[in-house]
């Protein structure tokens, strides 16, 4: 129970990678504030599943498009649990389109949720972490924070930006007991990836089975990363053993970015 007594906020934790991280942190003993689209009732099943680890679990419905709601989520965590030790900025969306056809409102939403929301959450969480001289900021980036692919201009711009934000925050907080690191997964089988299959098939004129193969062809292991593997890495970065790791961007991508 290496995280016993700690409190975590995990954005976008009602599904996919965020849910995997919420499970891993709760399993390690942390209380967890979960977040995602919809209300508590809509998300009853994942909340119940994380609470089954036996720590305190709460839900906050902050919309990552609204900076005041993000600040309120951080304040509520500190108020209700007395502290916020671990902030995992995970919520993210994708949109696939050639740059000249990229819908402007989709560009704005991808940048807002994948890049600006982590800034707003960090901005709100840092004063308390600094005062307590302890904090772990973990930003879920992507192999696309290190490399590019066609038709994902907004996502790749946002993830490269988030990798830069991670490093800047690490330097600013290095003497305050607060670390800031990124995790950059390759393809993880989650609803976000599942939704890309029909788009890819359509834009490339291939079948959905071929689209799935094409996605995995980027990953030398030819296997999807699992949410449990990402959760385990997040739990390690949140632990005391990772106190000297800051400003790092951990690839967990089956060798994709080694190529
Ligand atoms: P997902 O679609 O399964 O889950 C996204 C989560 O974000 C959900 O809980 C959803 O409710 C929440 N969310 C979306 N919009 C929101 C909003 N406006 N306000 C609050 N919550 C919102 O996605 P995932 O695949 O688990 O991705 C999670 C993160 O991991 C994202 O940042 C994504 O870019 C990153 N990532 C995913 C992969 C992958 O292969 N799945 C690879 C690299 C990085």
How large a portion of the residues is in β-strands, by DSSP E?
5-15%
- How much is the radius of gyration in Å? 18 Å
User: Which homologous superfamily in CATH is the superfamily of the largest domain?
Assistant: NAD(P)-binding Rossmann-like Domain
**CATH architecture designation of the largest domain:** 3-Layer(aba) Sandwich
Tell me the distance between the termini.
37 Å
Counted beta strands: 7
* Largest sheet entry: 7 strands, parallel
User: Can you tell me the residue ranges where pLDDT is under 50 for at least 5 consecutive residues?
Assistant: none
Q: What do we call the CATH topology of the largest domain?
A: Rossmann fold
Question: How is the largest sheet built, in terms of strand order?
Answer: 3-2-1-4-5-6-7
Number of domains: 2
Q: Count of helical segments?
A: 9
The oligomeric state of the chains shown is: single chain
Helix and strand sequence: EHEHEHEHEHEHHHHE
Overall pLDDT score: 97
Q: Share of helix among residues?
A: 40-55%
Indicate the overall shape. globular
Q: What structural category characterises the helix and strand content?
A: alpha/beta
**What compounds sit in this structure?**
nicotinamide-adenine-dinucleotide
CATH class wording of the largest domain: Alpha Beta
